[in-house]
Amino acid sequence: MFLAVGAFALAAVGMTSCEPKEDEDNTQWGDYTVVGEYQGAKGEDGSNLYFITLVDNNIETTETSASGEGYMASICFYSSSANEPAEGTYNVDESLSDKTIHPGEITQMGPSGSYIIIIKDDMTDIVTLEDGTMDLKRGDDGNWEVRMNFTVTEGETTAAGEKVEINYKGAITFEDYSNPTEPEGDYSSEPATAPAEATFATATAFQQYQGMWEVQLSTSDYSVFADLYIIDSSTDINGLFGREFQITDSEANGTVLASPGAIPVDETTLQPQPSMYATGCSFDGQYITMTNVYYLVGGTVSIDESGIITIDAKSYNNHAIKATCTSAIAQGQAAAPAKVAAKPDVQIIRAHKSVK
Q1: Is 50:38 a contact under the CB 8 Å cutoff?
Q2: Would the pTM of this model clear 0.70, i.e. be above it?
Q3: ∠ CA(336), CA(338), CA(342), 5° rounding?
């Protein structure tokens, strides 16, 4: 729930709001703060992807909590119209095509697509869409009329089939995110000298979400550490056994994701990105602190039939990175959390204790 509430709390830039009022057709318009996004042609039929995010102004939000009563909704939908969506009725449908609304899903990484956070009696629940429609109409004054009528999925406190109605009338600016600028990776922190070959004591795999496995390896004293992203559709850890994975940036199924280097998170902080290998590490019971980080960009990761992993990789500076593990990969019970703390002077990675 933290991810969802935090995302809404951070979405305030560019939002507009509207006071509640009643229309001639007895529509009760809610008091919402609203932001729109245009993300370009990403539909299966070439239609354009949009988001409308609404936050009830009766709700008070922080980075970690929400209180009050009302809805916070993020609606993901497709329209053949560019820059702004076409007027008309949109239906909940998984086809990712014109005039459809993605129903959404909730995974270990949090919600995606369309979802609604329902806050009642200071209790917070999150649901996705089962069925329903959204009607969009643009007035002569340039304001939008948005009528949402959804049937939602079962939540912790929400019954399956519950109805959610959201009505908004007011301005919506659809910010253009169709050509995002990706931050350039920085590899300058990689050492000029190659590391020694390592023997890991433990290897733990966490399914971040369907199609992505994170594997963390460490020596018994935590002095050497590796963090790998394996892109694979296997739903069980045993599906990774007896296979060899190429390290590449193709993002293809059955590969290990090559590191893009360290990505800037603010003006003074670089965040190293997997897949990577680090030496000179220490562990304080919660965090791995890394001294030397090697960014893996080529080579292979092999897992034998018994789950023993071998790394035969190449780093950005063309160093040979070789390591094996003495124990089979164990599957973690939860997704690994965010990797790097926002500290400019030290590289820190959060690690799970190995599952025995």
Answers
A1: yes
A2: no
A3: 155
